[in-house]
Amino acid sequence: MSDKINSIIEDLKSLTLLEAAELVKQIEEVFEVDASSVTNTNMGMMPIDTSASLSESSEEKTEFDVILDEVPAAKKIAILKVVRSLTGLGLKEAKELVESAPKLIKENMSKDEAEDIKTKLEEVGAKASIK
User: Fold this and answer.
1) Mean pLDDT score of the chain
2) Residue 126: exposed, middle, or buried by beta-carbon count in 10 A (0-12, 13-18, 19+)?
3) A GO BP term, please (predicted)?
4) Is 85 helix (H, G, I), strand (E, B) or coil?
5) Band of residue 51 on the pLDDT scale cut at 50, 70, 90
6) pTM of the entire structure?
7) pLDDT for residue 49
8) Positive or negative CA dihedral for 68, 69, 73, 75?
9) What residue ranges of the chain are covered by domains with CATH 3.30.1390.10?
C-alpha cells in the first residue's frame, strides 16, 4: 500500500464510533452512495439508482413458489406420496407438511417447474397454487 493509504488507515483507526458513523454519513452524501446496501466485502460502493428499483417491479416474475392449499382427507395418502417424491422429505416430515396445509411445497423455481408440480399435485386430488 502507498504511504497515503497507510496514513488514511491510521487516521481511521483513531476515530471514535460516533466519528466513524459521521464519516460514513458524509461519504454517502458526498459520493451519493448507500453503504448499507453493500453486502459483498469484495464489492465497492455503488451509486443509488432509484430508477432500477422501479423497473424491477415492472419486470415479469421469474421465480415462483408452489403452495399446497388444500388436502381432501380421502386423497391424503396419494398426495403424501407425490409430496415426498417432489421434496425428498421423509415420511414423517411429508405427513406433517401435508397435514398443515396451506403450506409452501417448493420455492424459487421457474414457471414451467412450478406448473409441473402444481399439475402433479392436482392430478392426485390436492388443491395447489403458484405465487
Assistant:
1) 81
2) buried
3) translation
4) helix
5) low
6) 0.52
7) 53
8) negative
9) 64-130
